[in-house]
Amino acid sequence: MTKFKPLRELPAAPKFQKGDVLVIFGELFGGGYVNGLIEEAKNHDMQIIYSTVGRRDAATGELRPLNTEELAEKGHDIVNIPLEAGFDLTPSQSGNSPSDQLKGLKLKEWATAKLDWEQVAQSQESGHADFKARAQTWADEIRKLVPRDKNVVIAHTMAGGVPRAKIMMPAMNRVFKGFGDRFASSEEFWQSDLGRLCDKSFMEVTAETFSVLLEVTKNMRDDMKSAGGSVAYTAYGYHGTEILIDEKYTWQSFAPYLQGFAKMKLEEIATQAFDDGISACVFNAPEILTNSSGVFSGIEIPLYMLLFALEKENQEGHLDAILEKAWSHFKADIDKTEAKAYFNKFFTTDVIQQWSDYKGWPQHNGPAQMEMIKTTSAETLGWHLNEKNPASTFLSEIVFKSCGKIMLAEASRVRAPVWWIGHDAVAKAIQ
Ligand SMILES: NC(=O)c1ccc[n+]([C@@H]2O[C@H](COP(=O)([O-])OP(=O)(O)OC[C@H]3O[C@@H](n4cnc5c(N)ncnc54)[C@H](O)[C@@H]3O)[C@@H](O)[C@H]2O)c1
Fold this sequence. Notes:
Elements: E1 21-27, H1 34-43, E2 47-52, E3 55-56, E4 63-64, H2 68-74, E5 78-82, H3 98-101, H4 117-145, E6 151-156, H5 168-177, H6 186-191, H7 193-216, H8 218-226, E7 230-237, E8 241-245, E9 248-252, H9 260-275, E10 279-284, H10 300-304, H11 306-312, H12 320-327, H13 336-348, H14 350-354, H15 367-381, H16 391-411, E11 418-420, H17 423-429
Parallel strand pairs: 1-2, 1-6, 2-5, 6-7, 7-10, 10-11
Antiparallel strand pairs: 3-4, 8-9
This protein binds nicotinamide-adenine-dinucleotide (NAD).
């Protein structure tokens, strides 16, 4: 388990300038974390090189690059080599992918479904080799595009790997969102064959892709070093966040976060690379709402606490406009002091406190905890003037922009392989 290391002092301004390059290893989506890093790189006149995970052909299911239409929609140049990772659709030697094995299963069978693990292992091996080959082709392309004597930051964005089988999303929804009669134990899920498959798949997409990235860019790294340039790597982790609870920045985490096991592996990979002299850093970033985090019920609750961190760090009134805009999402009768007391009470109740165990992270869910998250999530959504335009969208943007500033600055002189960006750092990084 990595030692908790919160970034208390903001890193010095990045040394990057025109001619330096930010390369995205993953695909850019609206509202995603990497938007912040891109914005900050543009602020430093850096060139941005974008990538894609590719698309699956509707008829054959084959992975393919983006077509002309999809490329035009993106609105920027892309190194068009599909970087989708994982093995859920990769056939075994007998032609069955893990997703094929799950075909036809009914939701009620999620806990008892059985997989042929030998075939799964074959799919995993072949999927890994296939991803590595595509990543190598991608790296060779990047090497041609990047000036050798400049500074390059490669941003790993990848996380995911939910097997694409019909049974999977409803089963995961039960685990991540179910409460009352619909509660499903994440521990039971994790021990089932479906859970074991998710574990392997998350490891492959969320963690092993970072290892592969380091490996396929080795030649470029060596080349650039000898020509006076440099390569640094950033990755997005999640391992809980410090938020302001009862006036003190305190670590807490969203649960159940089953991807957490893979995120710990990602930390290990970065730590090993850093020890080997590579500038690699995983930034454990706060909970925000993105395309990928919608599955986690109540993930916005810790994000609301940013309102109070912003207030605390607003010593010279420089955050007044942001705070006003953030609070303007709520109905006029929502009192700030009462709202603060409400959230403080939520995070300090015995139920939620039991789910704030750093050493036991990532923790499995429990019925009382899921119920409380669900109730609080619904109540606080009801505080909004327009539930379709929640404060959490605005707050997410503040978080990813601040994280972008912090990450680019740290990438110019990586001091540690794993940092936690808490709400204090987010609020301090806004200028
Ligand atoms: N949203 C949060 O609350 C949060 C918190 C901390 C860290 N993060 C991390 O930030 C990173 C970006 O996520 P985001 O929340 O901004 O959402 P996002 O949807 O914008 O980004 C997800 C990324 O994962 C990539 N991806 C998805 N499936 C993949 C696959 N099979 N193979 C290869 N790449 C795949 C996508 O291309 C995309 O770049 C992720 O690593 C995520 O775990 C998110």
